[in-house]
Amino acid sequence: MKTKVLKKAEVKRNWYVVDAKGKVLGRLASKIAVVLTGKHKPQYTPHVDCGDFVVIVNADKFRVTGNKMRDKIYYSHSFFPGGLKKIHLDLMLKKHPGRAIYHAVSGMLPKNKLRARRLKRLKIYADANHPHSAQSPQTIEL
């Protein structure tokens, strides 16, 4: 018996819709990362990008456990002296509703050359409407 190795031309990408309303952020992000990498498919090949598209709706209605809403801090730096910026999770949800989920999923993906390509297949929307109905996405419960 030989192991079938998936080639780039043989990859079939599906579309999935995930409703983030009421879901815990970390658990949601880890399951989305599995779908983006393609590890949920039986023909998963590590060196081929065989993941699927994921559309997240209600991105600002997720929940976190404990005091993370006011204690979790996102850092960014401008690479200039004194250029460190901090923003708490509750303020980030007001300014950029989908960015917290994006950061969580990005941290769950492997740190390699395929990471940016996988993140391009992640579509995040703050409300329940999305423009990807033409792709006839399947709703999955995570």
TrEMBL record:
<dbReference type="GO" id="GO:0003729">
    <property type="term" value="F:mRNA binding"/>
</dbReference>
<protein>
    <recommendedName>
        <fullName>Large ribosomal subunit protein uL13</fullName>
    </recommendedName>
</protein>
<dbReference type="InterPro" id="IPR036899">
    <property type="entry name" value="Ribosomal_uL13_sf"/>
</dbReference>
<dbReference type="GO" id="GO:0022625">
    <property type="term" value="C:cytosolic large ribosomal subunit"/>
</dbReference>
<dbReference type="GO" id="GO:0006412">
    <property type="term" value="P:translation"/>
</dbReference>
<dbReference type="Pfam" id="PF00572">
    <property type="entry name" value="Ribosomal_L13"/>
</dbReference>
<dbReference type="InterPro" id="IPR005823">
    <property type="entry name" value="Ribosomal_uL13_bac-type"/>
</dbReference>
<dbReference type="GO" id="GO:0017148">
    <property type="term" value="P:negative regulation of translation"/>
</dbReference>
<comment type="similarity">
    <text>Belongs to the universal ribosomal protein uL13 family.</text>
</comment>
<keyword id="KW-0687">Ribonucleoprotein</keyword>
<comment type="subunit">
    <text>Part of the 50S ribosomal subunit.</text>
</comment>
<dbReference type="InterPro" id="IPR023563">
    <property type="entry name" value="Ribosomal_uL13_CS"/>
</dbReference>
<comment type="function">
    <text>This protein is one of the early assembly proteins of the 50S ribosomal subunit, although it is not seen to bind rRNA by itself. It is important during the early stages of 50S assembly.</text>
</comment>
<dbReference type="InterPro" id="IPR005822">
    <property type="entry name" value="Ribosomal_uL13"/>
</dbReference>
<keyword id="KW-0689">Ribosomal protein</keyword>
<dbReference type="GO" id="GO:0003735">
    <property type="term" value="F:structural constituent of ribosome"/>
</dbReference>
